[in-house]
């Protein structure tokens, strides 16, 4: 397990990244669950040269759901090790299909050669910001519903008082 903290600029705005790389290590489940509870978004990564890592990645969204109790979490799916194309076991189409199922962005990268790594993090930050920009609208709708409920409840209360 590796942890990194860094600040970057994405779309001319600062972004603070707190990254926990568990590399699929089962022995860090307590720490992983803690990060899942507080994480604003997740990068689910698998090796294109390892079919089992793809299958584990395919199960990861359910793991996030079990911890967070929602599917509405910003995600990016990443097929890594494109520098080892000759050893590929997972097709690009399979990765794209899983990303469609997850309703998330998909990238193929090479961490070893630093290909498209920044794109992954920028994509995730954009997904997080998009979700955050929608929150005020949802909160406004909730407040409006709450306000309508109070009015209705108040008028029912007045009606009840006038009939007794």
TrEMBL record:
It is an enzyme of class 3 (hydrolase). It holds the Pfam family Ras. The keyword Nucleotide-binding applies. Its EC number is 3.6.5.2. SMART domains: RAB, RAS, RHO. This is small monomeric GTPase. Keywords: Cell membrane, GTP-binding, Hydrolase, Membrane, Nucleotide-binding. It comes from the Eukaryota. It is found in: Cell membrane. It catalyses: GTP + H2O = GDP + phosphate + H(+). PANTHER family: RAS, DI-RAS, AND RHEB FAMILY MEMBERS OF SMALL GTPASE SUPERFAMILY (PTHR24070). Gene3D superfamilies: P-loop containing nucleotide triphosphate hydrolases. The keyword Cell membrane applies.
């Amino acid at each position: 397990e590796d942890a990194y903290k860094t600040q970057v600029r994405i779309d001319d705005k600062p972004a603070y990244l707190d990254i926990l790389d568990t590399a699929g290590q089962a022995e860090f489940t307590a720490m992983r669950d803690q990060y899942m509870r507080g994480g604003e978004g997740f990068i689910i990564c698998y090796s294109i040269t390892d079919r089992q890592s793809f299958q584990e990645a395919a199960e990861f969204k359910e793991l996030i759901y079990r911890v967070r109790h929602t599917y509405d979490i910003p995600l990016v799916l990443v097929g890594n090790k494109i520098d080892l194309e000759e050893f590929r076991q997972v097709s690009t189409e399979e990765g794209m299909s899983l990303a469609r199922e997850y309703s998330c962005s998909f990238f193929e990268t090479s961490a070893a050669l630093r290909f498209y790594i920044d794109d992954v993090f920028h994509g995730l930050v954009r997904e997080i910001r998009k979700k955050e920009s929608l929150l005020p609208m949802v909160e406004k709708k909730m407040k409006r519903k709450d306000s309508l409920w109070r009015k209705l409840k108040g008028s029912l209360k007045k009606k009840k008082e006038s009939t007794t």
